[in-house]
UniProtKB/TrEMBL annotation:
SUPFAM superfamilies: CoA-dependent acyltransferases. InterPro entries: CAT-like_dom_sf, Condensation_dom. This is Condensation domain-containing protein. It comes from the Bacteria. Residues 24-303 form the Condensation domain. Pfam families: Condensation (PF00668). Gene3D superfamilies: Chloramphenicol acetyltransferase-like domain, Nonribosomal peptide synthetase, condensation domain.
Amino acid sequence: MNVTGPTPYVEFAGPGPLTGPPTAPLTWGQRAIWEAIVRTAPDDRYFNFGRVLKVPGSRTVAEVCAALAALMARHGALRTRMSGALRTTMSDAFRATPAEPYQRLAEKGRLPVVVTTEDPDRVLDELAARPFDYFGEWPVRVALVLDGDRVAHVVLVFCHLAADGLGAEVALRDLRMFLLRGPGVRRPAASQPLDLAHWQAGPEGRRAAETAAAHWEREYRRIPPTMFSSPSGSPAEPPIWRALLRSPALELAVRSVAAEHAASTSTVLLTAVTELVGRFTGHETCAVLPISANRFRRDTTDIVATMSQEGLFTLDRREASFTGLLRAAGPAALRAYRSAYHDPADRNRITASVSAERGEPIHPYCCFNDMRFADPGPARCDPAEITAALARTSVTWPMSQDKLNCRFCVHLTTEGVSLTADTRYLSRPDMERCLLELEALVVEAALR
């Protein structure tokens, strides 16, 4: 990346926690993503993500840095780093005894900022390409893209321990507000991950955790040990690949099926993916881990934090028709999303206990993540339009790497439907076939 001039720093200072010391256990969301990071390292850059903000008006570097300082002051997650028994270098951290780290909130500090004239999307890719130092680095990276002597774009790359997709959108909204109205604008205090961690450890949090744990324990006693257990016979190099399906026909068909069955498009796709998992594995009962935003409490609606966690969705495929599966999927999806707000320590205990009882490890290794910020909504679509759109279907292969903490991961984005899989269990030809059969299943249901 071509850097313009010396690296400026954002000097920030913010309040400490509302109560207690500036340290706390990890929140449930932080602990869940930390466990995923540990299992994926050294390829844990997989969890980095970013946003590009077009700067409103005409702003100098100094003005943008002042807005960034206000953002860092407002949201404690951006001033929070890991602490604990693990060492601070990445190479040592993952070889250390896996003692439980904790979070530490800093009241002040200096954030380095890259200043460049390169394309913002390219800058984002470069900043996201290396893992974070979770113990020594601030959990956000920032670049300012200049047009002349003014800042045209701000690029932010987030550590997933600090924010999820919705948390990043809150940060962008607030940064834009500080740019428009000035860093001194008064706002009600923002919720902080440190305070959330204390609530989760308290009586109310424990009651919520116990309800979720009961669901995990009940379902873990009846699901297959894992979804993808048979070697594919055709592993690729590297073993982890992503296939991206771009299908205007699938987009139309999903909305049409959702309208027909009074369901969300997300539930339609979750059901279809689960059916495909069953077809490819032979399991009559399938378990998929949908990612839930977990932002249903008033104090978490606008928090910058990683709130998203896996729920446990189970579906019995003995019902012959896709329509029948959709009827069963609605209540099952509600149970799954409620179970996502859970204490990973409870889940780990249940996993170990049930695995010991059944004599083999229990884990679906099969997830579903609807990353769209809004469900496009049910809408009846013209069958002829759906059929005509099939000609525009494409499958590409945008990513590969060595390690991942899962074997089968479906992501819904505005680009399309992607499948990231371990080719030791699902070969690249089968990955492509799975996506195309997903399209065919939903299109057929829509045309009926």
